[in-house]
Design a protein that fits this description.
homodimer, 247 residues, alpha+beta, Alpha-Beta Plaits, 2 domains, ten-stranded mixed beta sheet, 5 helices, 23% helix, 31% strand, globular, EC 5.4.99.12 (chains A, B), tRNA pseudouridine synthase A (chains A, B)
Chain lengths: 247, 247
């Protein structure tokens, strides 16, 4: 058995997210597994670096799978891209050591969230940006972000109420980049809870709209209660941008 | 009556082109006229700089219309963008002299055609680029383009067999730009016949695939016969990029 690592780009618009969900499957993982089964005649499990929610996109999702195949790497990649739908693309494929696991070995992830502050989204971008259409005070958002960065219990920023595992994560940085009327926000951390990026973003937007002060962030973190944080922003602005592994 | 000039961006994917077509209307012109009628209570005609075909996009289509309105320019623009569908956007709106006519005064147009030569289109780009997935000899295409540029009778590059008006046009330049596995081709001229850009592009692609030699271009121009030219490339790669007017 060989172990292959793939980097995948997808438009999440018409999918129920990354993770496979039974038989009537409209997930990214499911689509890739279907093509690998077609190629190999066997059922193959694809391990993603993590889930992405329904409607969330990926620029560089990382996944791996084990397969017996005489095909060359390039042939497998071409086979996948030939049979995958147009909104899923395998960017690279390479053989990796047996023990590599895309989720367990992931050290750091970066998510990008895109916001249109101007009056209308650019038409070619409309499925890939959140149409907020309001001006944001980015300086205030940066002050709020400083409270959120670091190792904290992010229970207030997690939608899953039944979460029994640790909700402590190390949020390494939040970076803001303005481009005309668009704001790009990058979240880098060792891992993210369910909906964590989208709730962080919604809370920061409420700061940017002056509905909350940056100083409130400390209290929200301490409350360990989802109700104290801001709203969950919609998925179309969110991209899994990068997953980093130990070299 | 005031005369307004607008610059419009649209994703042509789900439209039957720019030009209005009776009542069951799914055209860009029709959508804009509907919003202006809603705003003014009157039937308003919008004049585009030219038609774009079904599925063709625009980055900067120019149009004008006459209207009685007490609203400020910015208010009219915001009204339009509020009621227009997400895939049509008014980028700028300004009052212009009474006699300005977006079609009659247009001096030069530039169309952009985008081709993916690599194995798969980038997923976020898939509706905005032609998936050729074959390597092209751009040097040969440039040699062919040199034959096509200049003032010629482009009857061989026109789909409309019943064209009774002059088919002479001045094709000022064809520019090639490579970006990784993508090829961007810009056609600038004083005007273009029905399907002319898409037939020019298809013919140049046949040269790039070595199915034709660059030297054949002279014979195709001279033949004045659509059958001698290459195929019509699909609309999704085509963008009306710019329309130029006398200053």
């Amino acid at each position: 058995m060989k172990n292959y690592r793939i980097v995948v780009e997808y438009d999440g618009s018409r999918y129920d997210g990354w993770q496979k969900q039974g038989n009537t499957d409209q997930t990214i993982q499911g689509k890739i597994e279907q093509v690998l089964e077609r190629m190999s005649g066997k059922s193959i499990e694809v391990h993603g670096s993590g889930r992405t929610d329904a409607g969330v996109h990926a620029l560089n999702q990382v996944a791996n799978f084990h397969i017996d195949s005489d095909r060359k790497d390039q042939e497998i990649k071409e086979y996948l891209n030939h049979y995958l739908p147009e909104d899923i693309r395998v960017k690279t494929l390479e053989e990796v050591p047996e023990r590599f696991h895309s989720r367990l070995n992931a050290e750091e992830k970066t998510y990008l969230y895109r916001i249109e502050m101007g009056e209308k989204r650019q038409v070619f971008d409309r499925k890939y940006i959140y149409g907020l259409h309001k001006k944001l005070d980015v300086k205030a958002m940066e002050r709020a972000a400083a409270y959120l960065c670091g190792e904290h219990d992010f229970k207030s920023f997690c939608s899953n109420r039944k979460m029994k595992k640790s909700t402590v994560r190390n949020l390494k940085k939040i970076e803001f980049e303005k481009e005309d009327s668009r704001l790009f926000v990058r979240f880098t951390g060792d891992g993210f809870l369910y909906n964590m990026v989208r709730i962080l973003m919604g809370t920061l937007i409420e700061v940017g709209l002056k509905e909350r002060s940056p100083e409130e962030m400390a209290g929200i973190l301490n409350a360990l209660d989802r109700k104290t944080a801001g709203y969950t922003v919609p998925p179309e602005g969110l991209f899994l941008e990068n997953v980093r592994y130990k070299q």
